[in-house]
Amino acid sequence: MVLLRKRLSLVVPMLAVGLLAVGCNGGGSTPTSSSAAPTSSTSSLPQRPKELKSAASAKPCELLTQDFLAQHGLTRPPQAQDKDVTISGPSCTFLNGDVRGPGAVVGISSKGVSTLAPGNVGADSSSAAIDVAGFHGYQAGQKQPDSSGDTCIVGLDVAEGHALIGQAADTSNPPRTSHEQLCTLAKQTAEAALNSLSAKG
């Protein structure tokens, strides 16, 4: 799995830096750092409250409501990818109406959340456990030292072999959105998409 930062600068990416080389430093108080040893399996996560079977056929561009998009300024036409190799599944990029504003991506990964687990992200990144509406996963990101834009991602274990991905990035130089705000947007994006998936069952 790879975060796409480059697409954000063009059509907003899912953030373009390796997802395995991402971490979220200071993503607010919501995520809780894992006290367990690093793991590469979702077996260490608490059991999901229910199996969201709709994840297997979900269309990411349909998972965020118009109200959510308007609230966060994501008003440009969404850009769908049926087979996004960066996350091993379909994705949708939502661009900010302000070209200098942060963008968001929703995706459904067939590789689960294990690549975001502590110990599996890059040396210049970090990862923390996160719980969104009872569904567990990891929040990871990377703070760019060259001011080329920060990224943050939330991956939730929603079904066997499927993870819901919510990402946020700011590629303006210098970034106009703080890293903490990006991580908040990534979580809000994942939560909004999760609500839609849960309604589908």
Can you characterise this structure?
17% of the residues lie in helices and 29% in strands. It is α+β, with helices and mostly antiparallel strands and 201 residues long. It has one domain (2-32, 48-200). It starts with a strand and ends with a helix. Mean pLDDT is 77; it is low at 1-41.
Summarize the entry for a quick read.
With 201 residues, the protein is an alpha+beta fold. The chain contains 3 helices and 9 strands; from the N terminus they run E-H-E-H-E-E-E-E-E-E-E-H. It has one domain.
Characteristics:
201 residues, alpha+beta, 7-stranded antiparallel β-sheet, two-stranded antiparallel ribbon, 9 strands, 17% helix, globular, disordered N terminus
Summarize the topology.
Elements: E1 2-4, H1 5-11, E2 16-18, H2 66-71, E3 79-84, E4 89-94, E5 103-109, E6 126-132, E7 135-142, E8 150-159, E9 162-170, H3 179-200
Antiparallel strand pairs: 1-2, 3-4, 4-5, 5-9, 6-7, 7-8, 8-9
